[in-house]
Amino acid sequence: MPWISLDNKIDTGGYATVEKLKIHPDHYHSTRHNTFALKTLRSDIDNIRAAFQQELNAFRKIRRGPHLVELVAAVEITERRFMFIFPWAEGGTLEDLMTQEHTNHRGPSRLPSRQFSSWVLDQCRGLVEALGTIHFTHTDSIYQSERDLGKDYGLHLDIKPSNILYFSQETEASPFGTLKLADCGLMEFHSLASRSRKSMTGCSAGSQTYRPPEYDFNHTKSKKVDVWAMGCAYSEFLTWAILPHGSVDEYRLARMQDVSIISNNEEDRKIYECNFFQHHRECEVPIDPLSSDVRGRRINSNTCRVDSSKIRTVEIPMLKPSVSQWIEKLISKVEHETRPGIIVEFLVFIKEEMMQPERVQRADCRRVLKFFEEHMDKADLRSKESSS
């Protein structure tokens, strides 16, 4: 192969390895990239050809965009050796970025400078626009109606900070670099009709930490799975942007302190994990077959019920108290040191609409983009008017 260097092997888990390489200029012409990432699928994974084809098909279906990683090439060498080539992200991933200090981006206070704040919000907006190109693959616009059941719609299914690449190179449009959504290995495409009939049997693939409540309740896959995960990633990204270095680890530790199941049954095991929600389990609730209300509360679509002739176990998902308290901490920090503005409004939106445990009430991509239109675009207009 026409590769002139090959190093920096990275193990990405049970699916693939990634290596840094340079391609001989006679075989690739680009003024934008001079180093690349070679992703090699592990030869021992089941149905390796199908896995390769699934990821390749995903890139063929989705439209290119500034916040979606670009596929340079796909390579089949032998029956069990498959590779993808992408531009190399010098900054690593969002996970890597959040381990770094960035005091040089901040103003006199511990809060980000206005330019850095704008960059953070621009990246959040760009990432959800990239997600929209997956969710609305063959539509002319991500704002188009979903009435056409024959069209394909995609699900990313593995959004997390380590699957968001950080291209740290400065550009005129993005002075602190660019975040790009990556890793389409678990991406699926469905028609609305077929997808609505397909159930999730658990979060066997993808991240347990960023999974939504409905994964635990064996519910239908939907695009709102990705919105939940993106909201969780946003909450960590904004933690890094607003609070001192090391705060993301503190946030994760705080989530680990909250038990995953709140129950009045002493026999239930106490489980602690780093996810963002917990189950509130109510046992021995009298059954009224004529009503879907339990103790005056209507069971929502994320509720798991186990009925017998005498008792019902009801599980209601809620945000972990540590998550709600942490976001309130971010809001208080911003309000205390700056004028309340779009960052506060965005934090509230993340908590109330993106990280909404009730799937039906959770925002979709259109709603998130509408938030940015209503707040960022108007803020830009006010800024231009005040400077003129």
Automatic annotation (TrEMBL):
Keywords: Kinase, Transferase. SUPFAM superfamilies: Protein kinase-like (PK-like). InterPro entries: Kinase-like_dom_sf, Prot_kinase_dom. GO terms for molecular function: ATP binding; protein serine/threonine kinase activity. It comes from the Eukaryota. Residues 4-350 form the Protein kinase domain. This is Serine threonine kinase.
